Structure formats: structure tokens, C-alpha cells
Amino acid sequence: MFIYSKVLKRFGLFCKIYRLIEKYNYQIILEYNAVNLNCDKLTKLKMRKIFLLLSLSICVFTTFAQNFSYGVITHDDNDFDRNKIDSNANAVVLKEFGTSSIQINDGTGSLELIFEYHVKIKIYNKEGYKQANIAIPSYKDASREEFINTIKASTFNYENGRFVETIMDKKAIFKENKSKYWSSTKFTLPNIKDGSIIEYSYRLESPNLFNFKTWEFQSDIPKVYSEYLVFIPAVYNYNVSLRGFYKLSDNKSEIAKECLRINGIPIDCSKIAYVMKDIPAFVEESYMTAASNFKSAIYFELSDWQMPDGRKQSYTKSWKDVDYELTSEKTLGSQMKRKDVFKDLIPTITKNTTDDLSKAKAIYEYIKKQIKWNNYYGTRSDDNIKKALDIRSGNVADINLSLISALSAANLDAEAVILSTRENGTVNKLYPIISDFNYLVAKVNIGDKSYLLDATEPLLPFGLLPLRCVNDQGRVINLKKPSYWIDLTAFQKSSTSYIMDAKLNPEGKITGTITTHSTGYAAFNKRKEIKKFNSPDEYVEKLDERLPKLQILKHEIKNIDSVENTLTEIYEMEFSPIENATKDDLNFSPFFINPVGKNPFNLNERTYPVDLGSSSDERIVITIALPGKFDLIEKPKDISIGLPNGGGRYLLKTTIEDNILSFSQMLQLNKAIYQAEEYPYLKEFYSKIIQNQKSDVLLKKLK
Q1: Transmembrane residues, as ranges (predicted)?
Q2: I need a surface site. Which of 493, 523, 577, 612 has the fewest CB within 10 A?
Q3: Model pTM?
């Protein structure tokens, strides 16, 4: 009887609430477990179904947490135990709150995005002091610019039983131009000590409505509470996505009546709160693409808008629409069509070629030499390829659109590939977002094979993209056919072999020759390193300085500029005498060639892939002729270990035979990308290698 009466009271309360909601047109959600039911559909349900649902749950008004008061520091803030979230944290975000809305600029009358941010951070030690150095990025172009204003910042220290506030002087704020498109507003909070609490807030005014405002829940320090509140006018439709490993703790929505007026017409807004609690820090480790691919964050992309006067524009286009725009665009498709620029040059460029492949290679080498990269990325020509050729300088698109045009002028099948570099992040595959792409390369199809080419790097061989371009997939743009996706993978591995042939004299000095062969990315990186110096001799001189126990007597480096061939380095070397070599026992480490000194994988858990860019193969073979007969008393353990599913292996073997000490080592990583679940195996794999490389060789002379 009590339960029945209680349900009736709930039902009566619900009916009053529902009528009130219906009157003011609020959107209310009925929640039961993971099921959401829109309340304005309830009138279509029979009373029996409503009664059943009400016995489980009732609709209530959605409540939203508001921005917290500035300058209110509590003892709970000061005494917060970091062990609750991360015992190793140098600083912790106690609370952060942000809000975004679209408003009319009173000065210009145009719509703009207003973003307001407020955060409170507890600092524990000197490593956490860097959290007091703030840099707020803002975008600008020829016609639009974002503005940062209303900055407040304070440091709070607990002294003599009370909180003492140090307010940042406004003179500490300065602006730094980072590039032609980006600037940064910077400031440093004052009086930072162990245990300080810092607090700051600011307002950003932006004309960019397309991406609304991304909210990153994860940062380089853990967060106790993070909330983002957005007001999206009904005239705008955004595609919203949550990226990253961690999920929302709470997500609430309701209607905010008349949040905006356009030409006197009131517009309602969707008021949506996104909440995440107890968020681990995002720790960047070796071998990863852009952190933005993996941090837990909310992203917004404008789908379309429709104004009260009937004007409408859609931004979510099909690739068919985008193909037409790109191939018709003056700075992209029109440049691909400019065979006239190279028509008269092609006979000279290709005069010594015998087939299409050699013809393509000759054109590729010509473009690499003729146009120097100005270090700017881009998917469009800055002006036109004729100008880039004349001034012999251009951005990525200038160079590679020139390559495409030249290949086409030679009657080769050439296409453009737009892509996003590794540091720029992956692109949206659900619908075209052209702003996701920041780079353009060439694709040439010869017979049944295709080759991806980037002529910005003189030291790259034909068919090898720089690792910055090896990032998921790119979109192939063809002047006559529909565009399509292509995998951006490294078709060559990074391969290095070291062969040492030496002898140990009675005084304990080792002399001999080390020959190194490098191909693929290993050769490309080594060539770039050599080219940083004025000459190979200067490079070797610096190399000699970095190896204190070794002296390079002579050297020869082959194929520095012949990038299609193996890079070969030959060094005649002399090692410092082994200590106590005149005695019967010889003790030394055989791991003096490229040892694995530190495990690149140290996280307890990695929630994102290990992306090496390419597979790799490293082999080391050392043979040392000994002065007499020796017994091998101690040596590194002969091991053969592998990663699951053929992911890689490490082999090590040490032998002594006919007065020759032989030492061989092989490290293979057979994948370019290892998924997060494979991380523990990689970590253990490297741990075993490092542990084994701590062992020495002990030789005892036989009498």
C-alpha cells in the first residue's frame, strides 16, 4: 500500500512537472539505466506504459553546474591528496570550467564565437611550476582574427594560517607571433612555490564558427573535474564527436530559450554540458602521431546553418562536390593541368631514359633540384607553379603540383594526394573536411604499380615519402575520375647493418674496420645528419669527438648524394686499450655499437598505438682476432626472443673458435604500428634486451 501510494505521489508530481515543461517547451529526458526517452514522446504512450516507467524512474529538470567563483580557495583545495588521482603528479587540475556560445558582435553586427575559460590548479613541486607558464593560441588570417581579453590570474599560498593571494600584473601579459596564421598570448603567474594554487580565466572572441571550440578533457597533468558548457543556436547544426580512450562521466542537455536574436527574431539554443571526472594525465611517449588523435576531447564541426530569413548553407558535402571544387580550384586543380609549363623542358629532362619508370625518376630528380622547399606546408599553390619554378622556391604544394604537371606533360598518369601529416592528426573519414588536410604529394601510376612522391626532400629516393606523411590515409585527387582513399604506409623499411672486422693486440688495443650499410629511412636520416655539416670530413670529426674511447683513423662515405643506392660508411678505427689487458683475464663490453641504453616504453599503460612509421632491421656482426688462445669464461646470454604474431625478434650470440671472438646481434621490428594491447609485450621485449646488454665478455688466456 505504501509503495502504491508513493508511486501515485510521484505520478502526480510528474504530471505537474510535465505540464509545466510542455507549456515552456523544454526538452526533458527520461532516464532508465542506459535508455533515454524524450519526454515529449510520452503523450504517445499508453497510461499503462507510463505507469510502468514511473515505477522505475521519473523525469526531472536537468541541473547544470555553473562556473565556480573566482578567488575562492578552500582548505579542501589546499589539502587535496594527489594519491587519489595520481601519486606521481607534479600538479593537478582541481577544477576547470569552460563555456562557448555564439553571440552578435555589437561593433560589427556579425556573429562570433565567445569562449570563456576558468581553471584552478594545485602545484606540488618544482616540476609542476611550468603549469604557471600559460600560452593561449589564437588564429588570424588576412580578414579575420581571434582576440584574447579579460585575463585574470592569481597565485594563492597558505601562509600563517590563511590564504595569501598574489595577483598577476597585467604588464606580464604579452603576445608572440608564431607564424603567419597563429599567435600566442603568454603570461606567467607570480610567486610560485611548492603547494601553490594558481587560478586564471580569460575570454576568447573568434569569428570562426566552423569548428565551434574544441574542449580537451585530457592534458599533461591529471584533472579532478572538467566541465564544458555549450550553447548552440537552433539555426546551427554541428557534428559532435568524442575522441580518446576515456568516456564522459555525465552529459546533460536542455533548451535555453531565446539565447540569441538575429534581426530581432529570437532563437532558442541547445544547452549541453559535457563532464568528465578523475581524468588521468595524457603522457606523450616516443613513437606516436599527433596527441590530438588520442586525447579525450570533444570536437565540433559545422554541418549546416539556416537563418530565419530562409538562407541556408551546407558544409557537410559529398566527395563528389569536393572533387569538383578542388579540380576547378585555381591553386590546385588548375595547376595540375598546366602541362604547358614543362612541355618544352620534358625532352631535355628525359633524353637519357628508356622506359616510363626511368622517365618518372628523371622528372622527380629535376623537380627536386629546381625548386627549393621554403618549409611551408599546404594543399594549394601559394601563387602558381610557373612562379615557383621561376623563383626556384615554393611551399609543399608548389613543388609537388609542379611534379604532377611535369609527369603529366611526359604523358605519365599522375594524380595528387592530399593528406594530414603525423603532427596534424588524422582526417575525418565520415564526410569531407578539407581543413583537416595540410599537405599534398604526387602519385604516379606506371604499369601495375603506383609510387607516392614528395619532391621537397632532395635526399629522398624515388617512392619513399618522408615519415611526416606516413599517417593513416590520404585522398587521391584525379582530374577525370572520382577521388578515393589510399593507405599512407612506408613501403621501405629502415635497415642498417654494422660489420666490424678487428684484432686485439697483446697490449689490449683493438684495431680494425667498421663498415655500415644503410637503406630506407635509416639512410635518409643519416644523409640528413651528414648534410648538416659543411663536409663529410667535418661530420666525421664531430663523430670522433662523440666517441671518447675510439679514434677514427681513416674514413670513406659512399653514395651520400646517390640516394637510390645504399649509403655506405667505412671507418678504420682504434679503440682505447682494455684495462688490465696484460693480465691473463680480459673483460670488456661488446655493446659499443648502437646499444639500447634506455627503454623507450615506460608507461604502466599506454592507451594509444606505438607508431614507428616503418618496420626496421638492425644487424651487428663483430669479429675480433685474439692474440693466442682464450677461454670464454663469461658472456652475455645467448637469447632468441620474439614478439607475438611475428611482430619482431631479437637474437644474440657470442662464440669463440680458432682464436676468433664472434659476436652477432639482430633486432627486427616487423610492424610499423603496434596496437595499445601489444604495448606490454614491446615494453618487456626491450626490457630483456637492455638487461642482457649489461653483461660483459670475460676472456681467460690459456697457458
Answers
A1: 50-73
A2: 577
A3: 0.82
